[in-house]
Amino acid sequence: MNRRSLLRATAVGAVAPVLTAGTAAEAAVNRWGPAVQPVNLAARLTTLPPQTTQVIVVHGPDYATTTATLQTYERVGGVWRFVNPGVSARIGAEGFTDHPAEGLAATPTGVYAIGATMYGIAADPGVRHAYHRVVVDDWWNENPESAAYNTFQHSTVSPGGYSEALWRYDPQYTHFAVITYNMPPTVAAPVPYAGSGIFLHQHSTGAGPTAGCVSLAHEPLVGVLRWLDPGASPRIVLSPVRNLGRY
Question: Could you list the residue ranges forming a coiled coil in this record (predicted)?
Fold first, then answer.
């Protein structure tokens, strides 16, 4: 979704460090202490594909929040274990929504895959997915009347509608992953006007809310993007914490 009107929002506080997968369980315990360990929210999830062994959980206290917590987990021996127990994230200026629509600045709830290709204005930071370095005339088509709605497109002219000139959004699109809302494999084909361009990307300069995406500070974002492994069939879950049992 278009982010032009959201670039000057108010900044938020510090971001937790990224932990490495190799010491996931121990790091979670050592950082938080046995009395204040975060709840293992991945254990509540019931609809993940059986082949999924990596999951990102983005949750907040209610639908109206614009500040969320992003946690990463991996499944080892059938048990979900923390990789990172908590990173501060921003979501849509209108919070979470169960009813997304084009132009609504809210983050769609649900379970989504990570797109096969990651993108960025900067060079590949070392991700395991395919990576496309953004150049001039790279767009995300957000025109509901277009046959290529909610897809990447290289074109010398704008695809129209809310379409984003990806090369112009710096620092947001320094690096980003596609959250497959309203696109395959979540749906067979994008539904016109249902919403588009939902990404996991870097904070804006002011670290304010987004137009529906999930944003992180640079270092945590790069850590998550490097960790994601297409062979693990990763999923991202977006929801107020009280509704995670739906997923």
Answer: none
